[in-house]
Amino acid sequence: MTSREESQLLNYLKATGMSVGLLINFGADKDLEWKRMVLTEKPIRKPRVIIPPQEPRINDPKPIDPD
After folding, report:
1. 9: helix, coil or strand?
2. Predicted TM-score (pTM) above 0.85
């Protein structure tokens, strides 16, 4: 069995809403070849946004003193 067949099984599981599937190869050389695959949901992660502090640039005007 190749990753192509595994990918196809995972796509079938996603399309049907089922969570467990069997991939069976009756044409294996010596014995029956099979694989059980379970589709699990990925945990939802909150995006982490990091904004680095900005230093003043050389050409930025200086702030006006309120004196």
Report:
1. helix
2. no
